[in-house]
C-alpha cells in the first residue's frame, strides 16, 4: 500500500536530519507572500510557515528566516514575477497562468501542496441538494479564485447549473468569513474546505457537493518562486523546500498518526479557535489518509493541464493564452531537496 511504502522511508529521512550535511544550513531571509493565516488542506504540508508548532520542522530550524507579507491571490504571482517577493503561496496555478498571459513570466511553481481537489460545497439549512441552488446565491472570495472555480465545477457537473443564468455569485471573503455569511443567512451556499466544513455541518448546514467527485486531478496550494531569485539563492530555497518535504513525510507516516492529530488539533484553526481533537481526527481521515496532500510536493503535467483546461472551459483565459505547463513549473529545486533528504527524484516537466 502507498502509506506503508512511504512509512518505510521514515528511517531514511530521519537519518538525513541527523547527518553531518544537515548541519550545513542555509542562512538568510526569504520575502514570502501569504494568502491568509489559515492552514488549509492544500497547504497542510507547508503549514509550518503559518504556524511553527504545526510541524516538528520549521523554516527557522533549517536556517531560513521568513519575512511574511500578506497578499491576495491575484497579487501573489505578479509580485513574485516582478521581484517584489521571493516566494509566495499561490493557491492553484490559475492566478499564475493569468499573470503569465499578461507578461508576468518570471514566477514558477516549485512545490505543490495538493494534487486533488479539497473544496466541498455547503448549502444552507434549506438546501438539501445541488438542484436546490437554482435561483440562489453562492458566496466566494472572488470571481477568479479557486473557491469560485470549485463551486462552478460542482454545480455545472453535478446539477447542470451555470453561474448568472441559474445562480448568483457574490464575494464573501475567505473561508472563515464565508462561513459567517452563511450563518447570517446572507448567502445560500459556500465552497469551503475542512475543517470549516465540519463546523458548518455540525451547525446543521448540508454537504451538497465535493469537487473531487467531478475533478480527480487538480493542483492547489502551490508555492511559486521568482526564477532569477531562485537561481541566485538555490541553497535558501532548497532549505525551505526541505521543511515542506520533512513535514510531508511526517504527515503520511502511519506511526505518527496520533502525534499528527494532536498537533493539528492545536494549530489548525476554525476562525479564531483551534479545531480540536474531534475535527482533527476527521481532518486526518479526509485529508491525510485520503491522499489530498501532495506529500512529495509534486503534481504531474496532466494535473496542471487539468487546471488550465478548466480555466479555458470557464472562459477565464483563452486557449491560445494558456501557458505550456513546462513554462510555469520547475522542479529543479524540489528534486535537489529530495536528493539531499535521501528521497527519490520526481519526473521533471518536459
Features:
D-Maltodextrin-Binding Protein, domain 2, 12 strands, alpha/beta, 350 residues, 40% helix, globular
Describe this structure as you would to a colleague.
The chain is of the alpha/beta class and 350 residues long. It folds into two domains: 2-116 and 218-340, 3-Layer(aba) Sandwich (D-Maltodextrin-Binding Protein, domain 2); 120-213, 3-Layer(aba) Sandwich (D-Maltodextrin-Binding Protein, domain 2). 40% of the residues lie in helices and 15% in strands. The protein contains 14 helices and twelve strands. The protein has helices spanning 2-8, 10-18, 75-82, 94-101, 146-159, 175-183, 196-202, 227-232, 234-252, 257-267, 276-289, 301-314, 325-328, 332-340; strands at 28-34, 64-70, 87-89, 107-111, 120-123, 137-140, 168-171, 189-192, 206-210, 223-226, 269-270, 273-274. The strands form four sheets. Strands 2-1-3-10-4 form a five-stranded mixed β-sheet. A hairpin with a 2-residue loop joins strand 11 (269-270) and strand 12 (273-274). It is globular. It starts with a helix and ends in a 10-residue tail after the last helix.
End-to-end separation in angstroms reads 29 Å
Q: Roughly what is the average pLDDT, rounded to an integer?
A: 87
> In this structure, how is the largest beta sheet organized?
5 strands, mixed
Number of strands: 12
Tell me the number of helical segments per DSSP (H or I, 4 or more residues long).
14
Instruction: Please write the string of helix (H) and strand (E) elements.
Output: HHEEHEHEEEHEHEHEEHHHEEHHHH
Unreliable residue runs: 1-26
Strand content: 5-15%
Give the CATH class of the largest domain. Answer: Alpha Beta
What is the strand arrangement across the widest sheet? Answer: 2-1-3-10-4
Structural class: alpha/beta
CATH topology of the largest domain: D-Maltodextrin-Binding Protein, domain 2
What's the CATH architecture name of the largest domain? 3-Layer(aba) Sandwich
Q: How many structural domains?
A: 2
Helical percentage: 25-40%
**Radius of gyration from the alpha-carbon trace, in angstroms:** 19 Å
CATH superfamily of the largest domain: Periplasmic binding protein-like II
Shape: globular
Amino acid at each position: 500500500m502507498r502509506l506503508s511504502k512511504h512509512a518505510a522511508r521514515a528511517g531514511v529521512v530521519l537519518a538525513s536530519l541527523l547527518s553531518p550535511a544537515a548541519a550545513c544550513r542555509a542562512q538568510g531571509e526569504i520575502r514570502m507572500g501569504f494568502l491568509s493565516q489559515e492552514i488549509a488542506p492544500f497547504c497542510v504540508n507547508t503549514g509550518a510557515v503559518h504556524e511553527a508548532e504545526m510541524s516538528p520542522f520549521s523554516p527557522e530550524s533549517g536556517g531560513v528566516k521568513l519575512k511574511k507579507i500578506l497578499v491576495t491571490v491575484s497579487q501573489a504571482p505578479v509580485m513574485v514575477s516582478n521581484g517584489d517577493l521571493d516566494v509566495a503561496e499561490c493557491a492553484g496555478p490559475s492566478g499564475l497562468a493569468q499573470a503569465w498571459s499578461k507578461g508576468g513570466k518570471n514566477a514558477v511553481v516549485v512545490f505543490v501542496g495538493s494534487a486533488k481537489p479539497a473544496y466541498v460545497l455547503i448549502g444552507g439549512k434549506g438546501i438539501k441538494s445541488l438542484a436546490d441552488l437554482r435561483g440562489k446565491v453562492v458566496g466566494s472570495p472572488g470571481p477568479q479564485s479557486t473557491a469560485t472555480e470549485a463551486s462552478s465545477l460542482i454545480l455545472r457537473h453535478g446539477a447542470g447549473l451555470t453561474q448568472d443564468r441559474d445562480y448568483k455569485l457574490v464575494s464573501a471573503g475567505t473561508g472563515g468569513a464565508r462561513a459567517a455569511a452563511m450563518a447570517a443567512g446572507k448567502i445560500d451556499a459556500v465552497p469551503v474546505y475542512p475543517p470549516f466544513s465540519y463546523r458548518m455541518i455540525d451547525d446543521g448546514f448540508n454537504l451538497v457537493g465535493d469537487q473531487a467527485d467531478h475533478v480527480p486531478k487538480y493542483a492547489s496550494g502551490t508555492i511559486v518562486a521568482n526564477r532569477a531569485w531562485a537561481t541566485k539563492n538555490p541553497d535558501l530555497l532548497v532549505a525551505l523546500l526541505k521543511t515542506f518535504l520533512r513535514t510531508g513525510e511526517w504527515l503520511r507516516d502511519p506511526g505518527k498518526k496520533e502525534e499528527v492529530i494532536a498537533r493539528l488539533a492545536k494549530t489548525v484553526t476554525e476562525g479564531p479557535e483551534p479545531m480540536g481533537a474531534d475535527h482533527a481526527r476527521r481532518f486526518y481521515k479526509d485529508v491525510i489518509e485520503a491522499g489530498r496532500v501532495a506529500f512529495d510536493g509534486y503534481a504531474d503535467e496532466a494535473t496542471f493541464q487539468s487546471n488550465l483546461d478548466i480555466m479555458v472551459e470557464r472562459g477565464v483565459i483563452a486557449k491560445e493564452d494558456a501557458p505550456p505547463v513546462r513554462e510555469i513549473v520547475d522542479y529543479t529545486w524540489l528534486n535537489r531537496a529530495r536528493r539531499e533528504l535521501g528521497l527519490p527524484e520526481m519526473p521533471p516537466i518536459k
